[in-house]
Amino acid sequence: MNFDFTEEQEMLRESVIKLMARHAPPEAVRKWDGDRSFPEELYQAWVEAGLLRLPFPAEVGGLGGDALDLALVIYELSRVSTDLTMAFAGSIFCGLNVLRKGTDEQRAYWLPRLLDGKIKFAIGISEPDAGSDVGNIHTMAVRDGDRYIVNGQKLWTTGAGLKNSVICAYVKTDKTVHYRKGVTHILIDNDAPGVELRKLGMLGRRTVGTYEVFLRDAPVDADRVIGGEGGGWDCLMGGLQYERAVSAAGNCGGAQAVLDLAVKYAGERVQFGQPIGSFQAIGHMLADMQSELEAGKLLMWRAAWLAAQGRDALREITQAKLYTSEMYARHANMGVQIMGGYGLNEEFDMQRYFRDSRSATIAAGTSQTQRNLLANLMGMKAR
Ligand SMILES: Cc1cc2nc3c(=O)[nH]c(=O)nc-3n(C[C@H](O)[C@H](O)[C@H](O)COP(=O)(O)OP(=O)(O)OC[C@H]3O[C@@H](n4cnc5c(N)ncnc54)[C@H](O)[C@@H]3O)c2cc1C
Asked: What DSSP letter does each residue of 76-99 carry, written as one string?
């Protein structure tokens, strides 16, 4: 067993740390969060550094990296902000679906645009009545010659309003069959006719933004269907597993940032004549945070490694997503406690991690649904 990263992976990690230090210093991240604005120039810096190309094969202009490389990048981006990471991750997850399920023509059309930063992708699964119950999608696409007419509503679509964003929407094309056969994956420009967006006021993840998407008689060319009509469920499930494996890396990056902030503060803040970290109550909190973070990282790296090997890792991925998301939210809460009033003050970063971490146990599948899945895999079939 080898727990070391390769020299190339260490170089990759160093380059991402340097890039983020140059293009996303703490004061800038604080400002973007406060303004609820997304830094397009940072996205372009990721593009120029080749980060968007990383997990794609050379045949489509990629760098041939794997899920472990991607997890490494997402971990480092997330140490700076688990919010900013989502613009990168959402585009990658959807792009990999085009790679896996698209035709040669679709790959040739969409992937260069994505890899060159001309478009971004946003994941459009959830709807008002389709949260954990993903199959309950109501948005309908009706074939009309060489296009579809789409009507319905998407909800919580992260990054849908970013510049040149394309919404990777999951819609029904047949309501008479089981949802696994009636869902279709279709790509819709965020500024296309019939598309209206509303940025939602959310507790956290305010830079990339969470959107409501209204689709009213939106005409979408049929050649924008990925995976064939009725083939959307496969795209959705394959994409979700990858998303969960790699989002665990984001949770660990966020939790590492929380721990670093908490340790620094506990070493500097003096009360009753001594640093608060020397009080056993605070020291033990930090010791627990560090131990749990290491446990979460082991789950996460193993899940990413298995995904990189192309191995079936549903259980390991689900465990990593479940454990690290709860750990990140719990640690950010403890980080606020350790910093007292400063932990809640907008001039300090802990409150941002606290707000951003809260969605970790909800987005990409709630903790309850992850536990349902794990129990099912243990033979405890839910009704
Ligand atoms: C910040 C953020 C960003 C998001 N980004 C995206 C995105 O980009 N694209 C996208 O498509 N979606 C996105 N989502 C949506 C996310 O995937 C859903 O919020 C999530 O799947 C839960 O759905 P829901 O919010 O409707 O909650 P519900 O499904 O209504 O659940 C409410 C509560 O009931 C529990 N529950 C539901 N069913 C069961 C069950 N069978 N057993 C036990 N408990 C259950 C849940 O665990 C939860 O506690 C995002 C969400 C957030 C918060």
From this structure: HHHHH-TTTHHHHHHHHHHHHHHH
Quick count: other Cβ atoms within 10 Å of Cβ 218?
Answer: 24
Atom of ligand 1 nearest to the CA of 372: 42
Q: Ligand 1 — pocket residues by CB below 6 A?
A: 123-126, 131-132, 156-158, 202, 205, 210, 359, 362-366, 368-369, 372
68 in a structural domain: yes
Q: pLDDT truncated to tens, each residue of the chain (383 aa)?
A: 889 999 999 999 999 999 999 999 999 999 999 999 999 999 999 999 999 999 999 999 999 999 999 999 999 999 999 999 999 999 999 999 999 999 999 999 999 999 999 999 999 999 999 999 999 999 999 999 999 999 999 999 999 999 999 999 999 999 999 999 999 999 999 999 999 999 999 999 999 999 999 999 999 999 999 999 999 999 998 877 778 888 999 999 999 999 999 999 999 999 999 999 999 999 999 999 999 999 999 999 999 999 999 888 999 999 999 999 999 999 999 999 999 999 999 999 999 999 999 999 999 999 999 999 999 999 998 66
Please give the model's pTM, rounded to 2 decimal places. 0.97
Pocket test of ligand 1: the residue of 86, 97, 132 to mutate, having most ligand atoms within 8 Å of its CB, is 132
Domain count, the chain: 3
**Type of residue found at 173:** T
Q: How many angstroms separate the Cα of 256 from the Cα of each of 90, 320, 331, 340?
A: 22, 15, 9, 19
Q: What atom in ligand 1 is closest to the CA of residue 128?
A: 26
Of 87, 118, 149, the residue at which a domain comes to its end is: 118
